[in-house]
Amino acid sequence: MKLKQLLLLSLAALAGNICLAQDIKEDFSPSVLNQPGQQYPQVNSQGYVRFRIQAPRADSVRVSLGLGGRGGTLLTKGDDGYFTGTTAGPMDEGFHYYHVNVDGGVFNDPGTLNFYGSTRWESGIEIPAHDQDFYALKDVPHGTVDQVLFPSKSTNTSRRAFVYTPPDYSKETNKRYPVLYLQHGWGEDETAWSNQGHANLIMDNLIAEGKIKPFIIVMTYGITNQLRFGHMKEFKIDTFQTVLTEELIPYIDAHFRTLANRDNRAMAGLSMGGMETHTITLNKPEIFSHYALLSGGIYTPEELKDKQKPKLIFISCGSKENPGRVKQAADELKQAGYNVTSFVSENTAHEFLTWRRSLYQLAPLLFR
């Protein structure tokens, strides 16, 4: 290519970048996940995020969130000791984890609430989604999310679970409910589906609209042995399977008004939780009748053959993941005679808006 052409292309690219910067709307407002009274970080109507971090003695501040070089947004220091910067592009709608790197040290943004993810408490930010109404906090009857501590002889400890019960659970005391066992992803814990996923609000809204049969959701920690970061090969599914099927399920059936049978019991999980769901439902098809993998792999007719047939298989992912694989798997399962539904979340990747939308699609299909 001639030098003149290279110069013209470079100028065009530069002009495009300048135009992009000039096109950022200055309608930024504090994130809905900010600490009380904190003005930053801020999000604008296009999905750009602006940060402002006070670090007067620091030389470099970079935020892990964003599309900048080296995986984040480099902030610029001002004379007032504040570092400020805006992501190079708009973020996907929905929830995102992030942290702040100050002179090589990793810290949370003091302006935001913290959420357990990436095996640590991380800062969180919410990019308003065009369809956020289905997980919004509304003036409708609300269920409760209770913490329970259940004995685990296999791990020689007490373990924790969170249990969502529908709004009418405390009123209709003679009524029993189906149960969904809902698992989190790698690096998260049993708080994720309530805090990041808004599972309880999704259920409340669907119940208020009469779109689902009310059911209980149980969320527990999906790891039974300590893992080093990045060493998933050390994960032991057999010990968690024991905790889930031989300890937690009997505890829930004994302490809550459940319909304690296979037909009224489902298992679902996102990412790593999908892997857990896949393995445990294949190992224990007599326990669960509804299976759901949310960005968590697929089922094949061959591995389901000669096993007790599930009433429902649900497979989902984001459009930026591998939707072709999900759709192909669903087609093959349908051809083999299984009741299967696939769902692809538009314009999302391996992130919580994908899984919020997936739960919203899954819930009305359960226990019908």
Secondary-structure element order, as H and E? HEEEEEEEEEEEEEEEHHEHEHEHEHEH
Query: How many separate helices?
Result: 8
> What does the average pLDDT come to?
92
Are there runs of 5+ residues with pLDDT below 50, and where?
1-20
Q: What global shape is seen? A: globular
Q: Tell me the CATH superfamily of the largest domain.
A: Alpha/Beta hydrolase fold, catalytic domain
CATH topology of the largest domain: Rossmann fold
Distance between the termini: 64 Å
Q: Structural class per helix/strand content?
A: alpha+beta
Rg, alpha carbons: 23 Å
**Spatial strand arrangement across the major sheet:** 13-14-16-15-17-18-19-20
Q: What would CATH call the architecture of the largest domain?
A: 3-Layer(aba) Sandwich
Task: State the oligomer.
Answer: single chain
CATH class membership of the largest domain: Alpha Beta
Q: Describe the largest sheet.
A: 8 strands, mixed
Content of β-strand: 25-35%
The overall strand count is 20
In percent, how helical is the residue content? 25-40%
In total, the number of domains comes to 2
Explain this structure.
The chain is α+β, with helices and mostly antiparallel strands and 368 residues long. The protein has two domains: 27-128, Sandwich (Immunoglobulin-like), CATH 2.60.40; 133-365, 3-Layer(aba) Sandwich (Rossmann fold). The protein is built from eight helices and 20 strands. The chain has helices at 3-22, 192-195, 199-208, 237-255, 272-283, 301-304, 323-335, 352-362, and strands spanning 29-30, 42-43, 49-54, 61-63, 73-74, 76-77, 82-86, 94-98, 100-102, 105-107, 114-117, 120-127, 144-152, 157-165, 179-183, 216-220, 265-270, 290-294, 312-318, 340-345. An eight-stranded mixed β-sheet has the order 13-14-16-15-17-18-19-20, with helices on both faces. Strands 1-2-3-7-6 form a five-stranded antiparallel β-sheet, with no helix packed on it. A hairpin with a 2-residue loop joins strand 9 and strand 10. The relative contact order is 0.10.
